[in-house]
């Protein structure tokens, strides 16, 4: 039993005449009749009876029809879905997002992508940059939204944003400033995202400043929470401060303290669906 035989069978069942069914499918009648006979022999059942009104299904034929319709529908669906997947129009996109990516997803480009390809869905994993990189290397994620600095070895990337670090504090005297100098920052009990420690330390050392790190953590949201509780001044990316501490941050007058939000993926591993999204973003 094959799909062609089931298609012939269902067409004859609907048309109630082999000649008309053959015309509808644009095939010759003898090959269709042969295929139907082969189907009956394989199933060891008579599927049709002839009467004054044409061809009618037997009880066995009606039983087969209930399955054949579902089989043909499933086959059509499978063909369509496989084709869409191969073309990058269907599937699941697994994205890892760093906590410091803030409100960068979903983007307008992502909404446009979903409107154009409504059959896709997303599986979001949230972690820090190193956790996301580990899952990308394990190939349990397709894309990662992470912050610099990190080791780019083995990855391709696109820079989505470039932004400065800012100071989050409850110190009203500091908040009244338009921007803060390193000399002023150095006097505060600092709360830092551990990954940026080398960058901060290098800048302070170059300026001949000694600082006290009151808290080191692995999530910028944690740094902000401690700062809002008056435990010190947190140094975090500006978009995160805007999102989680909109009234408690001030710019820092030091241009080298910049961080980039990057979209990354394993080299030579992006399937068609992922390639489409990368191109759009």
Automatic annotation (TrEMBL):
Superkingdom assignment: Bacteria
Keywords carried by this UniProt record: DNA-binding, Transcription, Transcription regulation
GO annotations of cellular component type: protein-DNA complex
Identification of the protein by name: LysR family transcriptional regulator
Keyword check for Metal-binding: no
GO function term, MF aspect, one: DNA-binding transcription factor activity
Sequence similarity: Belongs to the LysR transcriptional regulatory family.
Xref: InterPro entries: LysR_HTH_N (IPR000847), LysR_subst-bd (IPR005119), WH-like_DNA-bd_sf (IPR036388), WH_DNA-bd_sf (IPR036390)
Residue span(s) of domain HTH lysR-type: 1-58
Organism of this sequence: Lactobacillus corticis
CDD domains to which the protein is assigned, alphabetical: PBP2_LTTR_substrate
